[in-house]
Amino acid sequence: MEFQSTVDQYMAVRVLVYVGLLYQDLIKSGQIKEEDRLPPVLPLVLYNGKPVWTAALDVEALIHPAPGGLDRYRPRMRYLLIDQLRYAKLDLSEKQNLALALCRLEQSRTPEEIRTVVGYLVDWLQEPKQLSLRRAFTVMLGRVLLPRRVSGQAIPELNDLQEVDAMLAETVQEWTKQWEAKGRQEGRQEGLREGEMKGLREGEMRSLRRLIERQFGVVPEWVHTKLIAADLATLVKWAENILDAKTIDDVFQ
After folding, report:
1. Residue 58 forms beta bridges with which residues?
2. Which among 118, 122, 94 is positioned nearest to 104, based on CA atoms?
3. Which residues contact 90 (CB under 8 A, 6 or more apart)?
4. pLDDT tens profile 78-113
């Protein structure tokens, strides 16, 4: 299993290497006897990035076709991709899908969303043979997800999904207020950061325009257009270029 937050165009190669190393280790350690076959492996890539996953799912797609009958010797190995953002658009009510439930929990933004998923899990995981799964979801909620969503809020030890549901029912209103307040605070901070960056960029642009005027005289209109469109890093680079520029065009190289 590989966790990815960015697209790796050569993920299929990595998967091929991982599986090959696993088989090699099984053989060298003596876990596989000469008369035994190697175990099947399901390579799984769990992706939670925003861009759509564009990497090849099979290593064969990364290799140029071979001439004649040699093409049959190209390596082939496919991995299973679970794209969380796209996967979570499916309807939980259509079928019992625990992978989808996990994605929904990870993407939850309100206590109500968490409680909705917990309600499905309570209904789905009622049989005694599902006790370990029910326990795994309970631990994940109580020790990972909820503490991350409500920082500073004490989470009691939870032993079952029904306890999670009951706790959410009691605290959902209070937590909603906390989450909304946190969201507003993060929004204000982001706005301040954007304002600071905008101020730095405008200051750098004005300084660069004055330097160009002092060095080369009247600033052409096309220079004004380039300055307005440039980001902060580009403006800084152009300002450095002025030190060695012999013509106004040299500034923008």
Report:
1. 78
2. 118
3. 97, 100
4. 999 998 878 766 778 777 888 888 888 888 877 788
C-alpha separations of 197 from 17, 204, 205, 210, 236 in Å: 43, 11, 12, 20, 13
What pLDDT, on a 0 to 100 scale, did the predictor assign at position 9?
95
pLDDT at 182 (0 to 100) = 63
pLDDT along the chain (253 residues), means of 10: 92 96 94 90 91 94 89 92 80 81 82 87 91 91 82 78 84 64 63 65 79 80 80 81 80 79
- Which residue type, as a one-letter code, is found at position 223? V
Residue where the block lists tokens 């549901």: 165
Name residue 227's amino acid.
Answer: L
Structure tokens at 40: 């099947």
- Find where tokens 């999670």 sit: 164
pTM above threshold 0.85: no
What whole-number distance in Å separates Cα of residue 214 and Cα of residue 216? Answer: 6
Reference 49, options 11, 9, 3; nearest CA is 3
Helix H or strand E segment including 87: helix 84-87
Classified as helix, coil or strand, 47 is strand
